[in-house]
Amino acid sequence: MIRKAAKADVKPLAALFRQLHMHHIKIAPESHKMPFEGYFTLEMQSFLEDEKTSVFLEELDGEITAYSVVNIFERERAERTYAKILYIEHFTVGEEFRRHGCGTRLFEFLKGYAEENGCDLIQLGAAAGNSEALSFYESMGMKPKTIRLELKL
Asked: Cα–Cα distance between 15 and 45 in angstroms, integer?
């Protein structure tokens, strides 16, 4: 079952957020570090309290298997075409639930949510070194749009 997250979900969501961050540390230790104790709980609480942010989760047999943090915004600038965009801030599937369809179900839900809200696009960012995530997003029909380059000094 996919549903909107509630305050009672903060603790298990924070644990999944921590798991996601540990993965980011593993693939990009030069740009990620472990934050202070309680950070993940505080961040998850702030997502749930933010009126512009929605947190959705998949729950199977009472256990949260995956979650996503999303925002809808409108791009309206003089030099760009108008677009209403569902931006995925977080998309996480618990390690023990990967390759069981949890991510696919959640992503398909988000596509429907975007369509219901009149969005033209779904966007997210993923680390170039996160081949597993990139492969998943491409299997969902996403295509690379912008490449961000960096030069470490």
From this structure: 13
Q: Where are the domains of the chain?
A: 2-139
CA within 13 Å, CB half, 142: 24
Contacts for 71-74: CB closer than 8 Å, 24+ residues apart: 72/114, 72/117, 72/119
Q: Is 92 exposed, middle or buried (0-12, 13-18, 19+ CB in 10 A)?
A: buried
Task: Give 109-138 pLDDT, tens digit per residue.
Answer: 999 999 999 999 999 999 888 999 999 999
Cut 0.90: pTM above it: yes
Q: How far apart are CA 59 and CA 62, in angstroms?
A: 6
Structure tokens at 3: 């549903």
CATH number of the 2-139 domain: 3.40.630.30
Cβ atoms of 88 and 55 closer than 8 Å: no
Alpha helices in 50-116 (DSSP H): 102-116
